[in-house]
Hints:
The structure holds 3 protein chains of 3 kinds.
Chain A: H1 2-28, H2 34-39, H3 45-55, H4 61-73, H5 87-122, H6 127-141, H7 144-158, H8 170-200, H9 203-210, H10 215-252, H11 258-268, H12 271-299, H13 301-305
Helix pairs in contact in A: 1-12, 5-6, 5-8, 5-10, 6-8, 7-8, 7-10, 8-10, 9-10, 10-11, 10-12, 11-12
Chain B: E1 8-21, E2 24-37, E3 41-45, H1 52-60, E4 68-77, E5 80-81, H2 87-93, E6 98-101, H3 115-126, H4 131-145, H5 150-153, H6 163-175, E7 181-185, H7 193-210, E8 213-218, H8 221-227, E9 230-235, E10 238-244, H9 245-250, H10 255-262, E11 312-313, E12 319-320, H11 323-328
Parallel strand pairs in B: 3-8, 3-9, 6-7, 7-8
Antiparallel strand pairs in B: 1-2, 1-4, 4-5, 9-10, 10-12, 11-12
Helix pairs in contact in B: 3-4, 3-6, 4-6, 6-7
Chain C: H1 16-24, H2 28-50, H3 82-118, H4 120-135, H5 138-149, H6 153-180, H7 183-190, H8 195-231, H9 243-250, H10 258-286
Amino acid sequence: xxxxxxxxxxxxxxxxILVSIFVFMFVRMIPGxxxxxxxxxxxxxxxxxxxxxxLGLNKPVLQQYANYIKGVAQGNLGTSLKTKRPVNYEVGLRxxxxxxxxxxxxxxxxxxxxxxxxxxGRYRSKxxxxxxxxxxxxxxxxxxxxxxxxxxxxxxxxxxxxxxVGAGTWKHLVLPAFTLGxxxxxxxxxxxxxxxxxxxKEDYIRTARAKGLKxxxxxxxxxxxxxxxxxxxxxxxxxxxxxxxxxxxxxxxxYPGLGSLLIDSVxxxxxxxxxxxxxxxxxxxIVINLIVDLxxxxxxxxxxxx
Amino acid sequence: MSENKAKNVLEIxxxxxxxxTDNGIVKSVDGVDIxxxxxxxxxxxxxxxxxxxxxxxxIMNLLMDTKxxxxxxxxxxxxxxxxxxxxxxxxxxxxxxxxxxxxxxxxSLNPVLKIGDQITESILLHTKxxxxxxxxxxxxxxxxxxxxxxxxxxxxxxxxxxxxxxxxIMIAMALxxxxxxxxxxxxxxxxxxxxxxxxxxxMKELKDMIGTSIIFITHDLGVVAEICDEVVVMYCGRVVxxxxxxxxxxxxxxxxxxxxxxxxxxxxxxxxxLESIPGNVPNPKHMPIGCKFAPRCKEAISICTEKEPxxxxxxxxxxxxxxxxxxxxxxxx
Amino acid sequence: MKKQKVKxxxxxxxxxxxxxxxxxxxxxxxxxxxxxxxxxAILAIVSYKIAPYNIDAFDYSAITQLPSSKHxxxxxxxxxxxxxxxxxxxxxxxxxxxxSVSIGAFCGTILGLLSGYYGGILDSTIMRICDTLFxxxxxxxxxxIVAILGPGISNVVIAVAVFSTPTFARLVRxxxxxxxxSVFVQAARNIxxxxxxxxxxxxxxSALPNIIVQYTMTIGTSILTASSLSFLGMGAQAPTPEWGLxxxxxxNYMMSFWHITFFPGVAIFxxxxxxxxxxxxxxxxxxxxxxx
Lengths: 306, 333, 292
């Protein structure tokens, strides 16, 4: 088991390195002079020379990369072009907000998705299945910003149950988390359903029924545990959609998280911030997937005992 | 009238099990009568597609996830027709009164649950035993089966065991609640010959020990000779011959059964080619008129392709569904 | 697999294509979806001609009007007819979806074939790059690319193509790996067929069903992503009648004028839904494991 953990951890290192290279190259891929971007339109030539020096652009590329990595490792993500404050300060302000939103969305969508998926898979081709899957296919087809607006119209404006914008209390989380989780729940439901259907065809389920077990026990003890193992891997991938979807949802609800920071930065061309956010998002995604892999290993007895 | 005073523990009467597929109705079992005497081992023999497994699944009501249904007939067990009872009552019979083991031991156990859990599950469900009692009973059963280190096996997972071991576990699981009937659907087909012999020995011992009646489904006549008391031969969803094992082997009446016996190579016999039954099992959608075996039968006569034969019963209870039997016995055709 | 002792369906000899058509014709919802897509395609072609109003026609005397007989979907904040704008938006959305996924599928398929067939360093390199691309959540990668290239619909197409490529590459690679050692490929090699010949004439056709299903599902994703990017201001720019952009413009009027955001949203939903339903139907019809 330990060997498996070490193997997985080592496997992501090349990916992390490549990601950091991509992100590093990112700013240099922008057409135009990065110095001009940082300096602004009113800078003099002397200013630009100083800035070039500061940005380290006069050094060889490899060293620039090394400096960049060193900086990141120490927590220095550069300075925001827009606010002139350190990027990690801007990130720090909003990090927990995004974490709360992501966790809230993930929690409800996994629970709902799994329940609907089991329900649909168990009653395959009957009305329960059609209902569940119609919901699911709609869930992956609805644009999140549209659902967000509809929810705001109904629950915020007409019914005044939840606040429209901002963060701070649990009430601020409800509508954004529901919006963000919709397509995730739908995908999980679809995947769970096919996993349940696959497992139901297995010989050991026939054995379980031959023992005279009640159908509920067959489904929840025998089928579910086997299906869940593969569903876990899908949940890890969904985290990426969560992070991406949060960008749109935070915009809809003016929720002060990392997603809305990204939008603002792109609109303002605040490249240090954009760069850092992309790095943060992808690192989180990689690490979450690693954790999911490890959870998968603990649930699968074959991997655990070998 | 039969001299045999033994009770019948199971009686299947004129059972028809059909599958309603998108491509039409498949008549897997088309009018089958089978009796299982208490304490005996009945072999059901046939090729794949003969309907022998579907018969077993029909008894157990395990057709729920398929498009199959018992459309006609009765299955009398314990004085009741178990076709007509509701699903919940059928479920209660499974595992406790009638148990079944299957062909593929490698895939018939749940990979993520411990062995002990899978055995005690049955006990806890069908009896009032406590968890500790169930565990003790499971260990006791494993010991009876001849599995070493039962205490350790309880906590292991199926993937840690060999095929032969897994099949023993399956048998243990099936018998742990002392069912009246054990249905074994080709339990040794997927195993090595040596393991096969061990499993058959085991089943014989257990039968004597526990007193279960066994229905043994197989295509292997050698196994039938080894372990069965009575035999039923099926072809195309019907019984074509039935009787006690000696009668079937030494006094074979039906051409199909004769063909099956002739195609077994015998030790010490020098032959150029193995005899085989010519032709193929007919397509269920294009069943021949008359006797279903006639197209492949060496001894077919004209009436065989016109009318389906009824059973002809010999005085000792041996039955054969063949016009030749009637002819031989001097009846009118 | 559970062994059903059903008599074998000795089907009459049918070509795989005929079998596929038979199975597909049973998927009622997929057929309706396909019909709707045809309708959309026709709409995309004729919309500008049949639209009752010019999509750019401002009419300050008729701003934010609710749906009426004069304006089926009402008017927006500039008095433009929403119905006309919505139906004309079909063209952009379909073109974006089609182009971006086609590029992604094309590049991904080539990479997947090469990667799976030749193996070695080529394979490792391509797979490492794909892993890296996968490490970026889709829309974030798209935003990054748009941040570099600048806003605009063509850059959105490029961005979506880039993040769909790895999916196709992985898919085709695994099919190729599976088929590489099969008997018919070996036979082709023995008679001297060139590598390209083998890839194109033997391996690609077997991988095609999976590619087609993935293609259809990805069109849905790409239309959603494109409209999301437009919504965020990074995609289509005013005054293009793009659905996501229309939603973004209408957000300030949401409180009293629901129609401005409602209809473009419905358009996105129905379009993506029909592609997803079609994809589901194709997948079910092509799945060899689904027996009757």
